[in-house]
Amino acid sequence: MTDPTWNQYRPDEQARPVGDAGTSAHPAPTPDPARTTSAPAATGAHALDAGTHAPAHGFTPSRELREGLAALRAEVGKAVVGQDAAVTGLVIALLCRGHVLLEGVPGVAKTLLVRTLSTALQLDTKRVQFTPDLMPGDVTGSLVYDARTAQFSFREGPVFTNLLLADEINRTPPKTQASLLEAMEERQVSVDGQPRPLPDPFLVIATQNPVEYEGTYALPEAQLDRFLLKLTLPVPERDQEIEVLRRHAAGFDPRDLAGAGVRAVTDAAQLAAARAEVARVQVAPEVLGYAVDLVRATRQSPSLSLGVSPRGATALLTTARAWAWLSGRGYVTPDDIKALAHPTLRHRVQLRSEAELEGVTAESVLDTVLAAVPVPR
């Protein structure tokens, strides 16, 4: 049975409906009826029950673990209003050991969201304000000479934490941006030829402003591909903004999370147990084929100069498994793939310049792909 607590706030809820008219200069091709027929039943461990994508021999995710993570939303909601979809995305990233790029205009509680999440998870967090004069050693750490011992010792940088908030990451030059590549991919920092492991869990949550480009350095495609998810934080609705003002009028201080009643509701041990269960979520061959067909379709889109790489396909599978687990299932359905397509793939595609001039966006291209690729039944 699925859990409506999670399904109510999909991580892609800000995305436009699939196939929305007028969202793309290139309309979706008409699906071939011959390809939409039901796939034959698989055999063995992935045998499907009639009319479903449920394995015949699956498992039931732990309700206790899922409720512990679901309680995060209530705790974060004590300090942050109207960003439940982003909380869902961050929880998925934690389950998948992936990194997150948060995009939103200033003042939508990006920093507060990360601080509150780390408090509710009992995880250590550090914040780095990325600026044009920030050096790589300011992030990773560096060797410091000790005159008393006449030796060099390593001084850890802020990257040695559980949740690293890389604030306004696109305001620092590429040299400093690249200092995070090894940490994000290998979960270690190499200084003077010696690798130093980072704590577990380790998650980079980077923020950037989508409307201000003066004095910024766009992240290269290779680094964007290192982020598991790109989440957009919208401006709150009117009633949500009224609630924000009401809380501040009542004395809410965003620097005092304890005063707001935020407490720890789970910890790293429960998170590790949840990750182990997510790794057991099964995927039928038809669903694997559907995910591959989606990413291959982006490579053939006339609006894109760069489609989704195989790394993006594995990321889509990984996030879909976490979403299925949060929804209370031990198997992935095509709807899970659809639910995570936008946040997992939107930053892995590159538009052609002529498509941008026509008003095409990465979101609209993904809408077109999702509408065109036949769904296994």
Automatic annotation (TrEMBL):
Residues 1-42 are annotated as: Disordered. Keywords: ATP-binding, Nucleotide-binding. Signal peptide: none annotated. Residues 296-367 form the ChlI/MoxR AAA lid domain. One of its GO terms (molecular function) is ATP binding. It comes from the Bacteria. The keyword Nucleotide-binding applies. SUPFAM superfamilies: P-loop containing nucleoside triphosphate hydrolases. InterPro entries: ATPase_AAA-3, CbbQ/NirQ/NorQ/GpvN, ChlI/MoxR_AAA_lid, P-loop_NTPase. Residues 99-229 form the ATPase AAA-3 domain. The keyword Lyase does not apply. Pfam families: AAA_3, AAA_lid_2. Belongs to the MoxR family. This is ATPase AAA. It comes from Actinotalea ferrariae CF5-4.
